Structures
1.
Amino acid sequence: MREFELLEHVYAANAELARHVRIGPGDDMAMVDLDGGRLLVAVDQIVAGKHVDLDTTPLELVGRKAITRSLSDIAAMAGKPVASLVAVTLPPDFGSKRATTLFDAMRKTAADYDCPLIGGDIAIHNENSHPLTCSVTVLATPSGEHVVTRDGAKVGDGVYVTGRLGGSLLPDGTGHHLTFEPRIKEAIELYRHLGTNLHAMIDISDGLGRDAAHIAEASGVSIQIDARLIPCRPGIEWRQAASEGEDYELCFTAPGELPTNMFELEVTRIGEVFDRKEPEKSSRGEAGGGSRGVVFLDGASELPGDELGWQHES
Amino acid sequence: MREFELLEHVYAANAELARHVRIGPGDDMAMVDLDGGRLLVAVDQIVAGKHVDLDTTPLELVGRKAITRSLSDIAAMAGKPVASLVAVTLPPDFGSKRATTLFDAMRKTAADYDCPLIGGDIAIHNENSHPLTCSVTVLATPSGEHVVTRDGAKVGDGVYVTGRLGGSLLPDGTGHHLTFEPRIKEAIELYRHLGTNLHAMIDISDGLGRDAAHIAEASGVSIQIDARLIPCRPGIEWRQAASEGEDYELCFTAPGELPTNMFELEVTRIGEVFDRKEPEKSSRGEAGGGSRGVVFLDGASELPGDELGWQHES
């Protein structure tokens, strides 16, 4: 069962959204109008055994990741955090002390990013073998009138990534996927410098190949990435860096030259936006199925993007 | 492990909430300020085997209940629905067809109550034995400047309930807990008629005894309920009606006489708000532990409210 197919079905049936819904499902966050104000909102979740290994991961980092995954969605929209809510289901033998540790970590992480935990629900599973699940809803406001979505990439734009990619999950279950910094501050700085020229953005959770494809599909363009330019973490080969996911760096497109020294974190131009080759723009329904619209060039050959990145089925 | 104790711990540590948080955790919904607009937000969840029995419940009703439980929180605050988001974890053998049925039911229910589904996340469990979990976040706006919370009950107020209570869960797992109407429309009508006189309100999810106690504790008052006045569903005795929960009717307090014929649904005066007998107002931390502050009178004896209602540990 694929998340995308299922969600696409829901989205398709949801075509007649109320007028106050400004951005419906399908981007990193949805947006609604509220008496003149605008609100960004998203939900994400972690499931023990899928996104975190409770045997090797301190609960402090489990709680941190639950929150930062959703915060990364705020970064993807260049949003400003407002507040967060959690819904947690615990195995009956989880224990109050461990539950408190988990909740404290979530509360503290949320507060650290100015996204205070303002509500929650706790349920208890019937069986000790049933896994901890933790869904986190985040609220944010856009940085300005222009809202940065996935669908604004334009032909001629440069394609950029922040930071370095790959190696987020170490063999022992630990790694950067537990300790990453959601790029909220950097996204807001990008917005401040680029304004409406910040054409499209996404956070890299599924892997560069797949996430760049989300931009390409949503924007109706094609993206060429020069594999040799991908900034990899030490010891990581580009194919791995482009496919593993859970980097939680930003991938964005913008025209012209970027200002230098926007912030301390490195920003690397890795490719360019081109006309779509396909005879017509693909429907959204096909977007999640592969990485059509993205090609990696390594100097010798072309590699279709759909051979990289993973199906986000978890 | 008790939800209240754990959440209270989080709330206590959360004392220094950002200024834009107008209502923090502890009520049916939290509220934040957004550039002048105000937003109510809450999350609730259902877990298969705990809140619904998948063996006896059509998936259409599972999806309906997932949404309506959260919509009932909007009713409790007299809010106007804005939008909803879901995070679902499915067993791997759940199947696309059943998942589609579930999501269609959630989408349709949300749309029926003007609370369109605008975002979601789907995760897949590792084991077929791991249960479906479904968390639903709802957004709403207050009906007016006065926001109806649990903590506004005043000495001399009448205590009222909408509809009829008890018998929500039939022995075969079906019943009103699956098919109830969240009282959004009625709550807005109450607000329209009573305005700032709608002092306190809650939806009856844990049982009248416990939920009236939430009002009493939060408001620092005591509530006396005349058990003989409790409107029970056919064949239900008052103790059962006051303790079972999952009625999703409204319990509220207001001074003076209520207007008649506010809406078709019956509204029954069942009690009155009195001074708190305890030497000092209990701390929030004690609120969840029992039903202190509520007494049921049946003409012959007094029954403390904490002998009714159930610990919401699920």
2.
Amino acid sequence: MILQFLAKKKLSRFLGHSFSASYTDSSDDETSPRDKQQKNSKGNGDFCIKNIKQADFGRREIEIAEQEMPALMALRKRAQGEKPLAGAKVVGCTHITAQTAVLMETLSALGAQCRWAACNIYSTQNEVAAALAEGGFSVFAWKGESEDDFWWCIDRCVNVEGWQPNMILDDGGDLTHWIYKKYPSMFKKIKGIVEESVTGVHRLYQLSKAGKLCVPAMNVNDSVTKQKFDNLYCCRESILDGLKRTTDVMFGGKQVVVCGYGEVGKGCCAALKAMGSIVYVTEIDPICALQACMDGFRLVKLNEVIRQVDIVITCTGNKNVVVREHLDRMKNGCIVCNMGHSNTEIDVASLRTPELTWERVRSQVDHVIWPDGKRIVLLAEGRLLNLSCSTVPTFVLSITATTQALALIELYNAPEGRYKQDVYLLPKKMDEYVASLHLPTFDAHLTELTDEQAKYLGLNKNGPFKPNYYRYADVPFNPCLLHHDFIL
Amino acid sequence: MILQFLAKKKLSRFLGHSFSASYTDSSDDETSPRDKQQKNSKGNGDFCIKNIKQADFGRREIEIAEQEMPALMALRKRAQGEKPLAGAKVVGCTHITAQTAVLMETLSALGAQCRWAACNIYSTQNEVAAALAEGGFSVFAWKGESEDDFWWCIDRCVNVEGWQPNMILDDGGDLTHWIYKKYPSMFKKIKGIVEESVTGVHRLYQLSKAGKLCVPAMNVNDSVTKQKFDNLYCCRESILDGLKRTTDVMFGGKQVVVCGYGEVGKGCCAALKAMGSIVYVTEIDPICALQACMDGFRLVKLNEVIRQVDIVITCTGNKNVVVREHLDRMKNGCIVCNMGHSNTEIDVASLRTPELTWERVRSQVDHVIWPDGKRIVLLAEGRLLNLSCSTVPTFVLSITATTQALALIELYNAPEGRYKQDVYLLPKKMDEYVASLHLPTFDAHLTELTDEQAKYLGLNKNGPFKPNYYRYADVPFNPCLLHHDFIL
Amino acid sequence: MILQFLAKKKLSRFLGHSFSASYTDSSDDETSPRDKQQKNSKGNGDFCIKNIKQADFGRREIEIAEQEMPALMALRKRAQGEKPLAGAKVVGCTHITAQTAVLMETLSALGAQCRWAACNIYSTQNEVAAALAEGGFSVFAWKGESEDDFWWCIDRCVNVEGWQPNMILDDGGDLTHWIYKKYPSMFKKIKGIVEESVTGVHRLYQLSKAGKLCVPAMNVNDSVTKQKFDNLYCCRESILDGLKRTTDVMFGGKQVVVCGYGEVGKGCCAALKAMGSIVYVTEIDPICALQACMDGFRLVKLNEVIRQVDIVITCTGNKNVVVREHLDRMKNGCIVCNMGHSNTEIDVASLRTPELTWERVRSQVDHVIWPDGKRIVLLAEGRLLNLSCSTVPTFVLSITATTQALALIELYNAPEGRYKQDVYLLPKKMDEYVASLHLPTFDAHLTELTDEQAKYLGLNKNGPFKPNYYRYADVPFNPCLLHHDFIL
Amino acid sequence: MILQFLAKKKLSRFLGHSFSASYTDSSDDETSPRDKQQKNSKGNGDFCIKNIKQADFGRREIEIAEQEMPALMALRKRAQGEKPLAGAKVVGCTHITAQTAVLMETLSALGAQCRWAACNIYSTQNEVAAALAEGGFSVFAWKGESEDDFWWCIDRCVNVEGWQPNMILDDGGDLTHWIYKKYPSMFKKIKGIVEESVTGVHRLYQLSKAGKLCVPAMNVNDSVTKQKFDNLYCCRESILDGLKRTTDVMFGGKQVVVCGYGEVGKGCCAALKAMGSIVYVTEIDPICALQACMDGFRLVKLNEVIRQVDIVITCTGNKNVVVREHLDRMKNGCIVCNMGHSNTEIDVASLRTPELTWERVRSQVDHVIWPDGKRIVLLAEGRLLNLSCSTVPTFVLSITATTQALALIELYNAPEGRYKQDVYLLPKKMDEYVASLHLPTFDAHLTELTDEQAKYLGLNKNGPFKPNYYRYADVPFNPCLLHHDFIL
């Protein structure tokens, strides 16, 4: 059940990625990879992928991705001498794309051994998997796995004679779940879990609450840098992109209501305002509401403007934000879409009634037609617009991958006792380090503190630069929680 | 020594306030208030102010301020029935202005008794003090106190027969300091300290670190709402205002470098970019640096652009950010000013050398002239531009005052054990409440969660609405620290 | 030769349109329409199209377009009683799309008879042509005409027994050219030409200069409303759309140089600045250059920034703005594209040399690879990005079509002597009328002058509202040229 | 009667200027300058000013202004060799400020003889007048002239034995009016009039219409560059400045209605939107209305929003835009001000009724109080806010002064027949030249056309660069009107 939900969610994310990769896909034959016996050019057969012959093509994809992920390449160079992951045995379960390959080859360059499965049954780029297998990685993944294949691949990563993982890199929590269920004793040797997704992080916090988390876990999803890029900066661009690609709508003069003024909502509002739309905001949190006011948006209840708006965008992470009653009152041609964290924000199910006609007018675009002829334009059936109908820039993926690599290094090298059996946010210093590795992309030049200035501010010259109560925190200030040395 | 510094700092803030109030000032005679015996119309003489006859004029000032502080007025109404401050004896030390008077009369309406002194020797509005005295408040303050007067007034608030404070409201820490020094035993009955200023908060953390803090203290300065308004939103407007009032400079096409991209820097950059300036940013923190890049600013070292810019603005809170070497390289007519937290950001002392000529061309504006005729336009002698040369909107003061009132209520009513002898940030729920009280000003309508939605999100319908790791926090997530009931 | 150029230009425009229409295209058989004998359901066979059976599908397309072209629908209603085109025989040569069909049916509703050919050999929507033929229009056009077909179709529109056109609606000048060449005597009965394209207008001015223009012509291309929408507002959105669809580039933090700061450049710069790019501008005209400065852009020569920028955009209408020397100096991964009026702005020919490798990585996207591995990303081979790689919103097409309709009405109804054998811009009052017909789309409410105000301003209450020297004009003020009555 | 109006209007402008100059004013004695006999250090006494002893101080003011008027200084250098004004005898009537002095000394450097009076009885900077007299200029002006003084001064400029003007530089038309009335025969020798103000230009067009204009006149007011700077760019900044200086209002979240979306309205709207205000627009012209929509503003009628807005700004040039009925419906605290061309936009007279109380709360700020206690904040009594309550940047004055100088040169040197007895706009090429002289201020680098490009575009490499129908023109295209050589 949960798997189904995840598969759906990840599928749409994959569809996003595939915009850039689709022209490279090729489906050769119908035999299941599980029934084939393949070896790479060095005679190694410890993998299971679609077609090892696609390796060259996959290599080219990886090389192009390397150009756009300078931070990982820098990390390779900077940390290679000391091999901070020497001895690490990483089992991973993520989307298998060119960007992931750059991450895996970086981990390898830093000393780690890796075994990898896909976290989604549709998202594997077969050529990339081939290139990884050719390069000696034990990859178990292909595009179009069955549910049985999915768990089989994960099991093949974990259940190996003479090799036991000591680090987990997970995206969605399925790999972690599998080990908990099948091989709980493995956790004795595991030094930590790095988890990227909202869902996986949620599961970890639940484990922690229940007292069942038996190793430290790093919540990569909520790192400052990742959040800012996944949400504010990325959504600022993808809301425009997603709407244009699906509807060709002109933004100028359009009336838009954005539900929710968190980072995602802020990005959407800023972009649409800049393009000449008139934007209304709804909020439940008075602090975010006041920010919306100060940023120049009318704060309304949805009902106040639902009759007049041309576009409705949900960014709340909540459920049933737009319900049938709202949809009934929208005007002809109104576009409805979701940029939030779940696919429940728009009550799409309520539109599956006999008196309404659905007409698929384009990929990801449905007209829902009322008996009086009114048409509502529903995008991506209420799933995430930015993942379904636009693409995720490599730059954003680079930030995530770099954060994952650093989290692995931190957990693997942390002295005894630094991390307990709990879920941790990334130390701010590591967040700052991820950011610093991405500055050269912008030819940006950081200023260094003088000794005198550092002393005046009571800061280490190398950071971290902000107190942990910077901006959002309502726990007592406790500096002890903040400062400790960091491996790089 | 510290007092000197504070007096200077506060003086400039007062100058800001006085923009709106200066036409109401009148200096009647030269007798020291300490030598006069005055009584109000009810025969009460427990106060010491300039001239009780100015009460009517002060009352009008207070009434005008009430119109612009709807949140406090709402608080009066909402909480008046239950009188949450019944029994509270508040001793306060703040600027004494019409806005403060609205706060004091609110505290009184909620059940508190108040005695009050000024936190600055120049900032008292005499008419307002008169109106307060006429209304029965024990106020000890006038414009133009000597240092001896200053401490005498504070002492008169605290040292009373038959009355002992149980709450402290401080701005700068001088009142707290005085009680620590003179009447330490008073702390037995004191339930808590509410402190507003950066300096005062710093002193409290030092006390806490040294294990000498003997009551809970609330750091009002770092509440989300106050920070956003004092910094981002207020500076977005005051940077333009301060520059215009002093130099009449046209912003369009000007090249500007802003040192520091925290909230203050973000506000300055956004405003100047919007007015058509070309803005460069310097930063030491890579996360803020990356934000500057994504927001469209070239990130540079100061030396890279110092020769070409028309305006230099410091927003770092650091010292010696702009030094003589930079000033020597600036072009003729370059404007230099400071929006940061200290008056040390620009090394003004380095300009006090014989070869440079200073010419005061307008209030707060100096031309510093090099031997070759080059002129640098230095504003407010390097002190805070927005406090010296622009005004603080009442709306911002309203947010601060409301936060202070709520902090007093919270500390006074907190059950045994909720707060220990430490410095606390405002519970997020109170921050949210302050925000909600200010929404009607914008005719803003908040959306309420349905029961179903609240359950789905795992939130209380009345907030708080954000996890405590929202955006900036690097401590382990611990929900226990977050939720507790709140009096209002 | 000219035809070739036009076909190329128009092809790319068509490709833009087809984004929205491509899912409706179907190619049935290979027989040339010229070899088929088809009749509509009423037995009429005076047309030549691909397949009359597609009429129903085309009708649905037209109905959807009608919803988005409220101005033409309003014009139908408002002017229908008096039929201002009664007796008009309009021969037209434009793209044949659903939007054009709405125009043609409007002209018909206003009293005109119409015969129509396509102005481009690829741009006809066959289903729409079928719907028009079924509705009784004499349409001669299909997708994929040969050059011979192209002229044959035009000739079939013009050369009819017992029917002679008295109005020409042209897009590109080919129809006008054909009549000049083959049937010059027809001009005796022709009351005027309405021309939409830059190229066609240019040809008309040349005819006028040479003294060979024998009827009045209306330059619809340069109407204020059309210009603003085709250029500023449309490009503000399409630059982002075109770049995203082709390259998925993240705009935040990117350095961009925009060559030319006319309306197109202004739109591009505003959009990219709003998305967080750092934008440089080049200009030849000091007035536009000063505007760029005041709008916050560094004005540079291309050479100053060519090494550092991530994106180069040409918007000049000039030739060889970006030449091989610039391309040689760009950094790896630099994106190069053209938003200007010609395909000569980038010297693409200079890249067709043996040492450079071209790699087509996606539709409309080429990597040009230097011997050292440097890749330049060239979009649309230097043709117009917004027409090749994004779409034109129906709203923009609606403005053009409405303007064309009004121009026809004006020329057809103008009293003797109002227009001579010259090229005219649309009377401002008509421009204002086009604008007013589009205001309801935005639920926008215009204010009306009171009688007293109109008198005070010396204006007619119904406009025109601006003197003819408003903003850009350097001819003596001559009010006589301005005011005359207008038919609607 | 007209004079009264002008004096009022100019007075407010003067008040604007005086913001920067007020600290230099000194009033020495009460004797009328007409009763004093003064001589400069060279024994010359052909002037009448307040006090020749202030010359040194005035000289310093002029030198500071020179630094900020680089275009005039460049003009001096560039044209000095050939002295294009050799033989010119210019009589001028303008505000006499440091900026005007830079203009006068430039005219002199180019070969002209000048005699000058003030166009406003209050606006003369006495020290500057003294410096000019000391430098040999025949200046007749002082601060605080009577109406009789005003005309006496003008007469002393014109009515001189042995000297007759051949050029007029006027601001407001009073000088021109005086010569028409008293010395009409002078026009035989006068080569042209250069007029800067709206009012003066209006009078010239009326003369022209009536067939009474007997020399060519140059309308400097409507030059593109001046218009853009006086309106769009200057107002974008001065609306914020004017509101802040008078009311200290916080812009964020405020609801504002701007009446009129011409250049002034566009500037106001852009600035307020950027500061976080929610802006509504009213318009009578559908083209401007559509622009407002596309720029993201709700287009409304004033009545729709009058109850909810916090600020009302008029920018129409019309009368009675805000009337008593609107004022009655505004909410408590609403700020009302005028940025348009006349002081009639707000019907201030309607507020002078017995039931309303006026309270002057600050310079230029009145509270108008309704019987129920509602207060409206009226700024500058409805006169121009930006001239009354903010300052005009020297950069804007520099553009105007440079344009005046070039217009004089053009008219003085134009070959017989180029200009007839009509009112002319500045040739575009001169507009471009003014712009180019101001680019170095921004370190802006103009691109030059190659020969090949100029040929391709059909342009002269030195401009003009735009056809005369660029953007706003509704007269037939006539290239003959456009191109002619230009003296510089």
3.
Amino acid sequence: MLATVIHAPRDIRVDTVADPVLSTGGDAIVKVVAACVCGSDLWPYRGITPTHEPHRIGHEFVGVVEAVGADVAAVAVGDFVIAPFYVCDNTCANCRNGVSTSCLNGGWWGGDDRLGAFADGGQGERVRVPLADGTLVVVPGPIADDEVPGLLALSDVMGTGHHAAVSAGIAPGDSVAVVGDGAVGLCAIIAAKRLGATTIIAMSRHPERQALAQRFGATHVVAERGDEGITRVQELTGGIGADRVLECVGTKESMDQAIRSTRPGGMVGYVGAPNGGPELPVRPLFNRNVGVNGGIAPVRGYIEELLPDVRSGAIEPGLVFDLELPLTDVAEAYAAMDERRAIKVLLRP
Amino acid sequence: MLATVIHAPRDIRVDTVADPVLSTGGDAIVKVVAACVCGSDLWPYRGITPTHEPHRIGHEFVGVVEAVGADVAAVAVGDFVIAPFYVCDNTCANCRNGVSTSCLNGGWWGGDDRLGAFADGGQGERVRVPLADGTLVVVPGPIADDEVPGLLALSDVMGTGHHAAVSAGIAPGDSVAVVGDGAVGLCAIIAAKRLGATTIIAMSRHPERQALAQRFGATHVVAERGDEGITRVQELTGGIGADRVLECVGTKESMDQAIRSTRPGGMVGYVGAPNGGPELPVRPLFNRNVGVNGGIAPVRGYIEELLPDVRSGAIEPGLVFDLELPLTDVAEAYAAMDERRAIKVLLRP
């Protein structure tokens, strides 16, 4: 079958690889209907994280179950399924606590020791899914083709934006600022509105992203950054800062923007993977009672909650996909994301 | 009158100073019944924060109102009052949001620009209290003498321990670990029990503090620190760590202990003033979805809630005072705290 393999920075290809096979009783084989490229896939693409040898890549996909192991009970051949960006049993103590990204038995697409076997990357024709009962969420059919982008968004970006909002503790009537206008930041705006925020400030300098932010529920757009951006947020929030700020980038600058845009006693919800591991400055947090909460989003646990709103059209996270390409054009997909010509690229095998 | 003045590190004296006078319509003059020494008072005492010139010190006291300005409405001559460790109007946007330590018009005992005039330190015979209506909380009389320690604890340590617990989001049934066995850590144990935690782990190596921790509600004591301490906490919490951890020290080591003792998805509530400003390590927080929340405790807003339980004896924070001295022995009070011969010293003018 065909699957995406990263060979080196900026050398990403669709290669012929071995077909996946059931290797444990808990596996499923999923034929991919759609996959996509994540902002974090750009780290090895850009060489920020090293690629020591060619390896499979991709961790967001939806598809149809082709085969299941003998122990699989919750998923059947023919089911349309959403896969979160990681593998989990959904039964361990951490999963029960709502933190399935810390599953005691889980792992990551593309290979992880804890799984005892290679787990495929998501950007391919088929994927072997370990712990299929815990990992996959069945979407009752029939599935219209135009539903696919919205369902695919539940594999990562919509749940991740929602996690930022939940981690920040958004309550009805809150003022919220969102730092980052990528797919996650835009989905965080959807989540903030859905949880009842009434002032939603999108921090964005890109006209087309500003427009999507407003369609998703942003009440204000702030193009300024740094001290000017903070002043603008304060002007929109009674002079004190936003009740909740959602940090969806992961750089030192974006976290600084988020912390200083938050009012005393407010909370930063952060889901931007800390690129380069900037430490959090404790004094600006402590002196103003600004909290920081979030992390690798446990999106598996959010899919059932968000799915009805996606299917009804009440929320439209599928709109973050502004470019669709065949899987064989994966190199162009990465380039378009890298050069910010696309917010997020959907791939069809 | 007599009041405590710090002249230099380890040179702390009771000096004769000018009597306070009403200087704004919103002032009150309070005759101090009892004051105390705070762990943070030890910073200038130890020379960790510099003393450029002799200045008044102390920020925790209870007393009786002797005089009020023309604009004071909520406090009257003869009232027994608790003063929090700062001054606030209790009406600004930050106060209304529950963060009176960020009061837009408030300030700190011992002098602060925002007040426009010198505010006395608390370790003296009398104190001028600016913004008296917002700052002071009246305790209906009569006040028995043995109630004084418990009421004095509400000026700082009990409310600060409670803030750690509230910031960590303790809910009934939670497992909680408390890092720090000073007066604040011990009060945090009281707060954790009061909010319904059922497993409460006191991290302490001092037998007499362990005993008080258990009287206050600790179900387990862990004397180990570092990796061994974390292992012990995990053993007591199903292998994953405590739901909530209360950090009541403020050093890099204590914060590391707190973060790594917290289960994935849990929260650190911190009130230990960051001594030397250690930064928070983002990766151990992000990767495990451990949040950090807290800061300078807005104790003014907690006094009314906690007061009935103190007066009924349901909670006994006054027990943290294990040494009582006359104000004139203030040098010995600081030495006893510095040498950890006393948990907390109560001073009587």
